[in-house]
Amino acid sequence: MERRYDRTVTTTLVLSVIGDDRAGLVKALADVIEQGGGNWERSHLSELAGKFAGIVVVTVPTDRADDLRSSLEPLQGLLDVAVHDGAVVEAAEGVQEVRVELLGNDQPGIVGRVSGVLAQHGLSVAELVSTTRDAPMAGGRLFEAIAVATVPADADLDALQADLEQLATEMMVDLTLSPHDDDAD
Predict the structure, then answer these.
(1) Quick one: which H or E segment has residue 100?
(2) How far apart are the C-alpha atoms of 12 and 112, rounded to whole Å?
(3) What is the pLDDT of residues 135-168, one digit of tens each?
(4) The domain 96-184: what is its CATH number?
(5) Which run of H or of E encompasses 133?
(6) Annotated domain spans of the chain
(7) How far apart are CA 15 and CA 43, in angstroms?
(8) Cβ of 38: how many Cβ atoms within 10 Å?
(9) Confidence of residue 94 (pLDDT cuts 50, 70, 90)
(10) What is the mean pLDDT of residues 170-181?
């Protein structure tokens, strides 16, 4: 059956979901969204520490948005779902994205210190993926993170690079800053 969505009268919803990881969670959520007239637009979903968690952006005809919200409630117990109103965000003129990659011995405060430097320079973290893994040769754990951040037009990237290099030296981690290429992901 062909579905058509009139984009001029749709509502964007942002769903945050979490539950104990098990087979069928995505299917259960997708079924409710489809039956409620919604269209699954984008998502970031992952299993972390035995929990399945993520964010899903859904568009739905405006006159069906409240019904979709209500239809998500029975998922409680399987998935905790919080529904938030989304917005269409236009890309700001002159804004670019950079990629920040970090690798080093795991230690408390890594994310806070790096994100603090980014914030001092006006950057906003758009995406962050991190993990830890065993480092058998070093006898500890490695922390690895990749972030994509938006850079305002007036940001001084040379000063940002210098501050990140100083932080990398203080924390004894490898930290690189490069232009973000959407095709590289």
Answers:
(1) strand 96-105
(2) 31
(3) 877 778 999 999 999 999 899 999 999 999 999 9
(4) 3.30.70.260
(5) strand 124-135
(6) 7-85, 96-184
(7) 9
(8) 26
(9) low
(10) 94
The token pair that represents 5 in the structure block? 């969505």
CA atoms of 154 and 167, how far apart (whole Å): 22
CB 99 within 8 A of CB 179: yes
Tally helices (H) and strands (E) across the chain.
4, 8
Question: Are 101 and 145 spatial neighbours (Cβ–Cβ below 8 Å)?
Answer: yes
Q: How far apart, in Å, are the Cα atoms of 113 and each of 23, 99, 102, 170?
A: 37, 16, 12, 11
* Domain spanning 7-85: CATH 3.30.70.260: yes
pLDDT, tens digit, 9 for 90 and up, residues 7-26: 448 999 999 999 999 999 99
